[in-house]
Design brief:
The complex is a heterodimer of chains A (179) and B (292). Chain A is α+β, with helices and mostly antiparallel strands. Chain A contains 8 helices and 5 strands. Chain B is α+β, with helices and mostly antiparallel strands and 292 residues long. Chain B folds into 3 domains: 48 residues, Uridine Diphospho-n-acetylenolpyruvylglucosamine Reductase, domain 2; 112 residues, Uridine Diphospho-n-acetylenolpyruvylglucosamine Reductase, domain 3; 108 residues, Enolase-like, domain 1. At the A-B interface, strand 4 of A face helix 2 and helix 7 of B. Bound molecules: flavin-adenine dinucleotide (FAD) and FE2/S2 (inorganic) cluster (FES) (2 copies).
Chain lengths: 179, 292
């Protein structure tokens, strides 16, 4: 069957099987491999993308079900060559180690900040509660989201920058040096 | 990589269209609503169908919470998130808010529907316990029109309901009665997991006395269970800690849990008693306008 949908603002049409999951459509048919696929039980959230503006588990949506709708993936966060503040927050506060959960985390927390620009720690933890991170213990993810919230509301000052408080100067330099 | 067996996919454009397709294609066809129970089962090949009929386009017709003088009507395609965020439900049936906060996670709640939850009929389904507690009725549409089935008659066994092959659940109705409130308690192994045991309670009071009380338990029997003996024991009596304990003891007696990876039957029986007590206590406090 033929499916057409908008992915990161672009209209795409492909021939697919009815049983194809959205996550595999994005990765295998569109080569958007930023969206990860981590389990067979709809539990890990590595596959989170937006469907019509709401984060969903793309391993539990058929590509056919997304036809006619709008999908946004982690590749769509960057605007005009500028990283989204949430991406910069994860960089500054070490919101990732292996990075496997990160695309999903970025998509749910971007959605959170859009609807709630100043979330409490509890609200951040609730927003990512459908996702599993095996590396960070979540603490640095929470800080990353708080960094982005502060950045966006213009209240981030050098003294509240968690990166400046919590990380070694060396690792900060390394982060800044990255392309 | 786990993927479902091949199937044909169709989109229903109306309730009549969906029912017509079900009638034509027979038992090898299934409706898919949120897909968050069906697709995981199909990926693991615990369920295999030749046709899936997607009813998500019906969300604009069947996604609603409508308040009327004597009842609240909820459309089958209303999603968990919409139930969680409904101010009307929070006011009339706070049990929904309690339960929805602990059903799965925000991503699942963006997709899963009340109709899918009730029709899935998993013994641990939280919304089934909520609907049993509130004495809801299910509106089932078929080729020959509509019928209304009380929750007490809706379940036929685990994963089995009164909805026939060529039928569809379109709406769930909740009677509104004055001077009442409700609450939900759940114990899970971790955030977002299915219940070890969960319990809903609703009470109605007049002049310091309980006029009616209902309890609905999930995960301790083949289906979510309402417990008429609790209602009988509580009617006409003033609320007290002892009375909640009595209700809890009846719940523990009445339920039929089995030992599995979530806990022993004995532990679940203990939880049935304890959660009944807590849910009753919280529901009664809410009748008096207090939050515990
Ligand atoms: C990771 C995870 C955790 C979860 N945790 C919980 C939890 O803690 N508690 C809980 O209660 N649930 C939990 N769920 C289940 C979740 O609530 C599902 O969304 C819900 O059970 C099914 O709703 P659905 O709309 O996705 O149904 P679907 O999966 O689309 O359908 C389920 C079944 O109902 C049928 N059906 C759907 N709609 C209709 C209709 N209108 N008429 C007739 N038949 C219909 C389908 O044919 C199918 O057989 C969890 C799910 C996941 C993936
Ligand atoms: S891949 Fe694990 S939830 Fe989607
Ligand atoms: S950074 Fe490794 S899983 Fe989250």
């Amino acid at each position: 069957m033929q499916v057409t949908m908008i992915v990161n603002g672009e209209r795409v049409t492909r021939d697919v099987e009815g049983r194809l999951l959205l996550v595999h459509f994005l990765r295998d048919h569109l080569a958007l491999t930023g969206t990860h696929w981590g389990c067979d039980t709809s539990n890990c959230g590595a596959c989170a993308v937006w469907l019509d503006g709401e984060p969903v588990k793309s391993c539990t949506v058929l590509a056919a079900m997304a036809a006619g709708h709008e999908v946004r993936t982690v590749e769509g966060l960057e605007q005009l060559g500028e990283l989204d503040p949430i991406q910069r927050g994860f960089m500054h506060c070490h919101g990732l180690q292996c990075g496997f959960c990160t695309p999903g985390m970025l998509m749910t927390t971007r959605a959170l900040l859009d609807s709630n620009p100043n979330p409490s720690e509890q609200e951040i933890r609730e927003a990512i509660s459908g996702q599993i991170c095996r590396c960070t213990g979540y603490a640095s993810i929470v800080r990353s989201v708080q960094w982005a919230a502060a950045e966006e509301s213009g209240t981030r000052t050098s003294t509240v920058d968690p990166a400046s408080v919590r990380s070694e100067p060396r690792s900060r330099e390394r982060t800044a040096d990255r392309p | 990589m786990q993927v479902p067996v091949p199937f044909d996919y169709e989109r229903a454009t109306s309730v009549e269209h969906a029912i017509g397709l079900l009638a034509r294609l027979g038992p090898s066809a299934r409706l898919v609503a949120g897909g968050h129970s069906l697709l995981p089962m199909m990926k693991l090949r615990l369920a295999n169908f030749e046709y899936l009929i997607d009813i998500n386009d019906l969300h604009n017709k069947l996604g609603y919470v409508k308040v009327e003088p004597t009842q609240i009507r909820i459309g089958a395609m209303t999603r968990h998130r919409e139930l969680l965020e409904s101010p009307e439900l929070l006011r009339s049936f706070p049990i929904f808010h309690d339960a929805e906060r602990v059903i799965a996670d925000p991503l699942v709640r963006n997709r899963g529907t009340i109709g899918g939850s009730l029709c899935q009929a998993d013994p641990s389904e939280d919304l089934c316990a909520v609907c049993t507690t509130l004495d809801a009725s299910c509106v089932i549409r078929g080729l020959d029109g509509e019928r209304v089935v009380r929750m007490a008659d809706f379940y036929r066994g685990p994963y089995e309901t009164a909805v026939g092959d060529a039928e569809m659940l379109t709406e769930v109705r909740f009677p509104l009665r004055p001077h009442g409130s409700s609450a939900y308690e759940k114990v899970g192994r971790r955030v977002g997991d299915w219940a070890v045991v969960s319990c809903g309670a609703a009470v109605w009071m007049d002049d310091g006395v309980i006029t009616d009380a209902r309890v609905g338990l999930a995960a301790v029997g083949p289906n979510t269970t309402g417990i008429p003996a609790i209602s009988q024991a509580l009617r006409g009596r003033p609320p007290s800690q002892d009375l909640y304990a009595e209700a809890g003891a009846i719940a523990a007696d009445y339920c039929t849990p089995v030992t599995d990876q979530r806990g022993s039957a004995e532990y679940k029986r203990h939880l049935a008693a304890e959660l009944t007590r807590r849910a009753m206590r919280r529901a009664v406090a809410r009748v008096h306008g207090r939050e515990l």
